[in-house]
From TrEMBL:
This is Transposase. GO terms for cellular component: cytosol. The keyword Nuclease applies. Keywords: Exonuclease, Hydrolase, Nuclease. GO terms for biological process: DNA metabolic process. It comes from Mannheimia pernigra. The keyword Magnesium does not apply. SUPFAM superfamilies: BRCT domain (SSF52113), Ribonuclease H-like (SSF53098). PROSITE patterns: BRCT (PS50172). GO terms for molecular function: 3'-5' exonuclease activity; nucleic acid binding. Residues 192-283 form the BRCT domain. SMART domains: EXOIII.
Amino acid sequence: MNKFVIVDIETANPDITSICQIAIVTYENGEITDQWHTLINPKTYFHEINVMIHGITERKVKNAPTLSDVADIIKEKFADNLICSYGAFDRSSLTRIFPELPNQWLDIVRVVRRSWDKQFAKYGYGLSSMAEALKINQENHHDALDDVLVAGQILLKALADSQQDLEFWLNRVRKPIDLEAYNKAHCKLEGNPEGSLYGETVVFTGELSIPRAKVAEMAAQAGCNVVTGVSKKVTLLVIGEQDITKLAGKELSSKEIKARELIEKGYPIQLLSENDFISMIQN
């Protein structure tokens, strides 16, 4: 298997289907053979947090195509190729929008964890952190094309350093990494190492429609580490209904306030509704 594509999306708001930018780059024998990217008019609102992250506004996409306008192009780029993404978010979004996609997916973060877990644990495994650790130039983090190109360099370096091919990694990412080393580094609740979201760390806030213990169990089975407080290691915050009597006059919970503060400092925390998170773990 010498050919694959890498995809990255940016979204307008917490809805994982509100795509406002997409980039798809095709690699063959370690070389880029095609690259395509475009802004997307999501026909929905832009949340200030998302705009702060990627800088894309409603005005910038006013004359951009809608997702339905470019759906055939996306499917043509994917064809029957292996699709790679840096993390599970892009896959969750695109398989929600295009449930008919038959492609295999490879999460580059899972490759990174198994290639350099001990070497780069102190840096964290976010795209920008790994780019810095591997001395890969990144000009515009959270621009979809720039993120794809950086992710491509990371994946190619992992393949070279491990001296293994994509077939090997498709199998390897389904197996545990060194759990003892991982637990020492994190000292947190463990997710299923074979789950598709392994490496994500989730916190819940607010009232959920099903018992929190059940959701936590589902999240852990899907691979998420479930923790009780927001920190720099958290990657997902699931927001349920808030009881205003517990907010001490504030509009947001203390967990959401802290998460937004960390997002403003550049930490890649994704804010999700309960429904979107359930959909993500079911995928």
